[in-house]
């Protein structure tokens, strides 16, 4: 008994096969740009080349599973939305709640500051913290709690 052409694929794999690559490319590009990332930086986050990110965005290749999950997580959306452009409202509201709760809805400028901080040497991090504390002396930025006197 032979199996049909697509019976060997999971439902997620089928969604990828059926997806309009140009539209998928537009959506992953939209996510990348909303994050303030170049194709090179987006590729580095997932371990792929800038050329591959470009191919995904132009609809020349199916995005890898890793890239789809990264883009969905970072973009505050779902893989389903990336592949189909559709997302049930219940998912959209849950995603927004999680983003607010965990501070995941950062602007590109905030993301850039975090990246600069992470790349700074220890004394640079201490200097950045000291400068911020001059402007925000009443609050600790960790968990938004007030400092004890």
Question: Can you tell me about this structure?
Answer:
This protein is mostly helical and 149 residues long. The protein has a domain of 77 residues: lambda repressor-like DNA-binding domains (434 Repressor (Amino-terminal Domain), Orthogonal Bundle). 64% of the residues lie in helices and 0% in strands. The protein has nine helices and no strands. Helix 2 packs across helix 5. The radius of gyration is 20 Å and the shape is elongated. The termini are far apart. 17% of the residues are buried.
- CATH architect. name of the domain at 11-87: Orthogonal Bundle
**Which CATH class of the domain at 11-87 is shown?**
Mainly Alpha
Q: What is the 3D shape?
A: elongated
Q: Mind telling me the C-alpha Rg?
A: 20 Å
Q: Give the strand content.
A: under 5%
- According to DSSP, the number of beta strands is 0
Mean pLDDT: 79
**SS-based class:** mainly alpha
**In the CATH hierarchy, what is the superfamily of the domain at 11-87?**
lambda repressor-like DNA-binding domains
In short:
The protein has helices spanning 11-18, 21-34, 39-46, 50-57, 65-75, 79-84, 89-102, 108-119, 122-135. It is mostly helical and 149 residues long.
């Amino acid at each position: 008994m032979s199996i049909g052409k697509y019976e060997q694929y999971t439902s997620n794999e089928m969604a990828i096969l059926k997806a309009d690559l140009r539209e998928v490319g537009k959506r992953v590009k939209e996510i990348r740009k909303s994050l303030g990332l170049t194709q090179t930086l987006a590729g580095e986050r997932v371990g792929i080349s800038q050329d591959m990110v470009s191919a995904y965005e132009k609809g020349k290749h199916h995005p890898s599973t890793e890239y789809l999950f990264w883009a969905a997580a970072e973009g505050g959306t779902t893989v389903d939305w990336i592949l189909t452009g559709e997302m049930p409202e219940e998912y959209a509201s849950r995603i927004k709640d999680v983003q607010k709760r965990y501070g995941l809805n950062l602007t590109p400028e905030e993301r850039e500051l975090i990246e600069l901080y992470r790349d700074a040497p220890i004394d640079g991090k201490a200097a950045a913290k000291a400068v911020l504390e001059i402007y925000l002396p009443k609050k600790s930025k960790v968990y938004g709690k007030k400092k004890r006197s």
